[in-house]
Amino acid sequence: MAVHTLPDITVGAAQRISATTLPCTWFMVQAVTGNGAVMRVGDSGVGTAEGAIVSTTGTVQFPPCGNANTYNLYDTWIFGTASDKAAVTYGTS
Question: What phi, psi does 60 have (nearest 5°)?
Answer without folding.
Answer: -125, 135
